[in-house]
């Protein structure tokens, strides 16, 4: 149990276009989802936290208008990188947490999405 | 949020036991200690979690002293496939996100 998937696993896009990344909890309901970004040879950096049905909370320095997060259901969150530029090229990882008190009350991570902006 | 400190890198030979220690001096009373493993271009994979004393599962052991200001991940008889980055994190049960430190890059060689 506790599987989190991401789609696509990798994507290449042209500068100025928008890219959507999906994160799904396959066998549990994720009341909270988190989005991280990881540059080469660096650690994961938290970008934002989203609770189902609520607006995402962004970390300092992360542009909410550039990285649109939607958590419309208990099993799906999406991250849209708008007007992507080469500096947005990175490895994007989501994680999902189940309801407090449930057996899924910890963070389960997805496999990541490699974004390359040309 | 509790800050963690771990060695940047470690080297080991195949078959040896590897112990990675993490310092977390300002751990909160309700914080758990969790270790993750990450291979290149993959998401972090849960290894083990504990609150105090010793926890053991099929892949690792976690030793936590009484003051909980540090913890040690023990990997018995490592293999080449254990080459990865290992992250020690504290927290996790409060609903807030896990914050990753720099991690320890473990290299296992023949």
Please describe the topology of this protein.
The complex is a heterodimer of chains A (118) and B (110).
Chain A: E1 4-7, E2 10-13, E3 19-25, E4 32-38, E5 45-51, E6 57-58, E7 67-73, E8 76-81, E9 90-97, E10 107-109, E11 113-117
Parallel strand pairs in A: 2-11
Antiparallel strand pairs in A: 1-3, 3-8, 4-5, 4-9, 5-6, 7-8, 9-10, 9-11
Chain B: E1 9-13, E2 18-23, E3 32-38, E4 45-50, E5 53-56, E6 61-64, E7 70-75, E8 84-91, E9 104-109
Parallel strand pairs in B: 1-9
Antiparallel strand pairs in B: 2-7, 3-4, 3-8, 5-6, 6-7, 8-9
Task: Give the gist of this structure.
By secondary structure, chain A is mostly beta strands. In chain A, 0% of the residues lie in helices and 51% in strands.
Question: What does this entry look like structurally?
Answer:
The complex is a heterodimer of chains A (118) and B (110). Chain A is an all-beta fold and 118 residues long. Chain A has strands spanning 4-7, 10-13, 19-25, 32-38, 45-51, 57-58, 67-73, 76-81, 90-97, 107-109, 113-117. In chain A, strands 2, 4, 5, 6, 9, 10 and 11 form a 7-stranded mixed β-sheet that branches. In chain A, a hairpin with a 5-residue loop joins strand 5 and strand 6 (57-58). The mean pLDDT of chain A is 93. Chain B has no helices and 9 strands. With 110 residues, chain B is mainly β. Chain B has strands at residues 9-13, 18-23, 32-38, 45-50, 53-56, 61-64, 70-75, 84-91, 104-109. Chain B is globular, with a radius of gyration of 13 Å. A 5-stranded mixed β-sheet of chain B has the order 1-9-8-3-4, with no helix packed on it.
Please tally the β strands of chain B and state the result: 9
Dominant shape of chain B: globular
Largest sheet of chain B: 5 strands, mixed
SS-based structural class of chain B? mainly beta
Radius of gyration of chain B: 13 Å
Largest interface: pair, residues per side: A-B, 24 and 21 residues
Radius of gyration of chain A: 14 Å
Share of helix among residues of chain A?
under 10%
Average pLDDT over all residues of chain A? 93
Oligomer: heterodimer
Total number of beta strands of chain A? 11
């Amino acid at each position: 149990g506790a599987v989190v998937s991401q789609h696509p696993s990798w994507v290449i896009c042209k500068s100025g276009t928008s890219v959507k990344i999906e994160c799904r909890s396959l066998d549990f309901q994720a009341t909270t989802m988190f989005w991280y970004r990881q540059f080469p040879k660096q650690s994961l950096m938290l970008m934002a936290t989203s609770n189902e049905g609520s607006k995402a909370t962004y970390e300092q320095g992360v542009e909410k208008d550039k990285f649109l997060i939607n958590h419309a259901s208990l099993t799906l969150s999406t991250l849209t990188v708008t007007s992507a530029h080469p500096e947005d090229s990175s490895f994007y990882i989501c994680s999902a947490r189940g309801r407090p008190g449930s057996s899924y009350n910890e963070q389960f991570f997805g496999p990541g999405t490699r974004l390359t902006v040309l | 949020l509790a800050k963690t400190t771990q060695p940047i890198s470690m080297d080991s030979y195949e078959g040896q036991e590897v112990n990675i220690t993490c310092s977390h001096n300002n751990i909160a009373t309700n914080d758990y200690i969790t270790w993750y493993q990450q291979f290149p271009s993959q998401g972090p994979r849960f290894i083990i979690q504990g609150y105090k004393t010793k926890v053991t599962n099929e892949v690792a052991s976690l030793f936590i002293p009484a003051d909980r200001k540090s913890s040690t991940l023990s990997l018995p008889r490592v293999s080449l496939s254990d080459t990865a980055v290992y992250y020690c994190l504290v927290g996790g049960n409060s609903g807030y996100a896990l914050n990753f430190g720099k991690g320890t890059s473990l290299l296992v060689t023949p």
